[in-house]
Amino acid sequence: MSRDKKKKRQPPAPPRLPLPIDEIAAVLERNKGTLSAADHTTLKSALDTLAAAMDVIDFMTSELQAKRTSLERLRHMLFGTQSEKTDKVLGAGQSPAPTDTAEAGKPDMDKAKAVPRTRPEGHGRNPAAAYTGAEKVHVAHASLHRGDGCPGCAKGRVYPLEDPAKLVRITGMAPLNATVYECDRLRCNLCGEVFTAPAPPGIGDQKYDESAASMVGLIKYGAGVPFYRLERLQEKMAIPLPASVQWELVQEAAQALAPVHEELIRTAAQAPLLHNDDTTMKILHLTREQRATALAKDANEERTGVFTSGIVAIEEGRRIALFFTGARHAGENLAEVLKRRKADLPPPLQMCDGLSSNTANDCETVLCECIIHGRRNFVEVASSFPEEVRVVLHTLAEVYKIDARAREEKLTPEGRLLLHQTHSKPLMAGLQKWLQAQFEERKVEPNSVLGKAITYMKNHWTGMTRFLHVEGAPLDNNVNEQALKLVVLYRKNSLFYKTANGAKVGDVFMSLIHTGELNGINVFEYLVAVLRHREQSAACPADWMPWTYQATLARTTGGPDPPA
């Protein structure tokens, strides 16, 4: 007997029988009277679970039927991707495809060979100038003073230089420190009266300083460290700080920060450009009444999701980050913000991706849509359609180089628009023509993964090319994606908010923290300053914005308050 005949034959795969879920559900309902309530509920739950499983199987089957392309997409969905840069996607050194699209309108400045990026010298080391928050200690020379004779040449005299030598000394300490003041007590041996030494100036009966609440809020909502982890760290430092106390500190601080937060919202509403997007979040105890209060009357009352919306407003170089957690989508939260916009202002630019939830509002805006979201659809299929993807990626790369040139030359919005109309418009026109030709010449099947990427870009072409027609229109929504990383960090470590009130506290802190980061200030000192002047900030919150508080402190107190 041949070796082939000795092989054990594999039994044929059993045929997959169709499962008419709707028909089974109808049979179950017709026989509802013959079943007990418990049995009917059990079977109904099992049928719902089976229907959900079938949906997952159908999705996985459709993905696998596209073979390699969808396997790559599935890998990206499950494990993410390290980089979407053109060189990483197509391979380093890949030249643009020889098409009119990649060459049309290409500016002369980009014809030079790209210089490979090298690792900067001293990478990972910070100079002394970077430690702006460090304590400064002046060290005088032990033996030489201004005008003394030079010990080297014995002829000249020494004078101080404007730039002293700098040494950096970094020490470790607990995130929150504590000082125990032991005040002497003396007792009269005759009358028994006790005399206690007064506390040092500035030390009252308050146990927790405003700097403690600021640090807890910064660690919790700015660094994503849960209360219980900070509690364990403080225990190791022999300075206990229970999680319950941490919550009381940030809750009370959020109330004091609320007027400034409301002023941030009002200021953001006047901005000419607003980015918006959202990500999922979880609130454990969110009642039906709270959902009904948050959602508009015409919204779907069956909505069960919880989201954190990020809105970044840009005006005159200043950036304001706002976060809102609840049942509303990003578009609905943007509409609530724009209710504070002055009526005489023109409609603002709105930058977001193509999801309908980001534009679900009744306010008037000039919609700009993110090019990166359209580009990402092509990145996902690069392994199966490298030539087609190369055309799109290299064309968009040229557009981004032109936008980078506008930033480097610090062009005005009018100058930037003119630059894009001169150089980017021919590129985008060629890309649009190429996209249309893929379907008209039957080069790409519309229902394939590449066809769907082309269809998405064609459907959102007007919003994606708004930068060619409107002054100040951005190319992408990256600034908002970066802002939402703060929310994702919190979600990864803390998993959820317990109540809607807890979510509100987190929104206030995250909004002030990230707004401070975007404007390049010391966030910790800013929070301390607002909390120590809560009466003044509540009376005139405009004076306590991240870009005005330092001038306010200098005017009222002569300088910033030193952290305790």
Please write out the topology.
Layout: H1 3-6, H2 21-30, H3 37-65, H4 68-79, H5 86-90, H6 100-103, E1 185-187, E2 194-196, H7 210-222, H8 227-236, H9 243-269, E3 273-280, E4 283-285, H10 288-294, E5 307-315, E6 318-326, H11 330-338, E7 349-352, E8 366-369, H12 371-379, H13 386-408, H14 413-440, H15 449-459, H16 461-464, H17 478-494, E9 497-499, H18 500-518, H19 523-532, H20 534-539, H21 549-556
Helix pairs in contact: 2-3, 7-9, 7-18, 7-19, 8-9, 9-18, 12-15, 13-14, 18-19
Kindly describe this structure.
There is one protein chain. Helices cover 47% and strands 8% of the residues. With 564 residues, it is an alpha/beta fold. Among the domains are: 86-104 and 371-476, no CATH class; 249-370 and 479-556, no CATH class. The chain has a 5-stranded mixed sheet with strand order 6-5-3-7-8, with helices on both faces. The longest helix is centred in the N-terminal third of the chain and has 29 residues, at 37-65. The termini are far apart.
